[in-house]
């Protein structure tokens, strides 16, 4: 077989020239002009200065200079794959969403897994939350479930997102630390934000060190709404359950793997899919109504809480299979733009203040990251159903209205008038009753920060509990400020006394610090946490 060494000629300086011919196409500029010499710039004499008129040289360098775009402000390191979603159980009773009507029907899907804190070039096995972002290309437009592999979140209100992220990302003066180990700022923030304690438990657990993307759960985290054809709404939580179960590595392994193969997770997904070993997840929904929401000990609008599966079982309704790697990492995985506000008729938002903020943030950041409001023209972001609107122009616009109106209402009939509204098929917002004075107050119901953390810890096996103790001890041992260590251990007293004691001893504290007064009483005797399969190495 050809290895590309035909037609080799040496130039005057000994450089290699490879000629076109036969099946080998001619090298051209971006404008299509054939290139005679790609090894030498145009100079005034063999030893003279490079000439400005060398348009091939200038185009080549100019293009290279502009290869990078900003990495995502969070979740910068990720890896994506194509696949499909197939409905297995109709949800027509609870939603009018077309994609959830007919069992057996498939729609294309794209999924991007990610770490949160590390930069694009960081390592795969950081102790971190994993993003689990799913784009379903439905007949009614793109529906994105932009979730994580942990069912709860650090904060209750999106206004705190820049703070939690600043605290965990590299500091602006020194540009470290990365996500590998804890530092004062992150634990300072967590210890001053009791709402983060539940998520901190999950992040110190084996869940934060997945063996592979293929062995992770995914969660939509927020409570969303499903709305049926009659206009009746139910609350819903989305779950992705891996067919192969949950697996994690231990910290010791993670450290070694990061050193030996920082691309461990992406290599695993690439190899699995390329060898026909297609990972699969079950989509499950937890459905509940206003009565359940009112009777629940926690506010269903609080993203730091989950709904125990013992109280509301997860109903399996579909499967997600990843069966094709991307052809072009940049065009697809890097430029894909997930957004919580991408929903379809039959799905709706709730007043979760974290979700409401996310709905603003993603579109905003993507216009900067991808450079133009026309990022939906990039094939990975474009709907795979017909779409027509009155948008035009802007950077890289590809779909300007042609031969029809570009505004409405208009007097032009038929196709010339352009697309029209459809009150029956179109998205309508669920008319939830809202009635309240404007306020920045947080609901008192958001105030129990320890009960579910305790429930999670107690649901773990002894081995898993020891891993959590060790993770807290290791991470807090990197914190230099004694008061922050003590404050954090103080929170752990509310979670579990033995956990707090083990961490305090591991950190060499003289005694257990005082536990802060909880805003609401810590509940005991809750059902065990959901789907906590044993994590094996
Ligand atoms: C990116 C999940 C909260 C802002 C992402 C991604 C995921 C994710 C999976 C990566 C998307 C991709 O692969 O392209 C979550 C979850 C959250 C959460 C599950 C809480 C439940 C927030 C909040 C904000 C936010 C509260 C801001 C108010 C962003 C931004 C990006 C991002 C700006 C980068 C998007 C891009 O450049 O494409 N998030 N996030 N996230 N998230 Fe979140």
Automatic annotation (TrEMBL):
Keyword annotations for this protein, in alphabetical order, are: Heme, Hydrogen peroxide, Iron, Metal-binding, Oxidoreductase, Peroxidase
Citing just one GO molecular function, the answer is: heme binding
The record places the active site at 75, 148
UniProt feature coiled coil, ranges: none
So which cofactors does this thing need? heme
Q: What class of enzyme is it?
A: oxidoreductase
GO cellular component terms, semicolon-separated: cytosol
Compositionally skewed regions (Polar residues) per UniProt:
27-42
Q: State which residue ranges cross the membrane.
A: none
Q: What's an example Gene Ontology biological process for this entry?
A: response to oxidative stress
Q: Does the keyword NAD apply?
A: no
Catalytic reaction list: 2 H2O2 = O2 + 2 H2O
Function description:
Decomposes hydrogen peroxide into water and oxygen; serves to protect cells from the toxic effects of hydrogen peroxide.
State the protein's name.
Catalase
Q: From which organism does this entry originate?
A: Gluconacetobacter azotocaptans
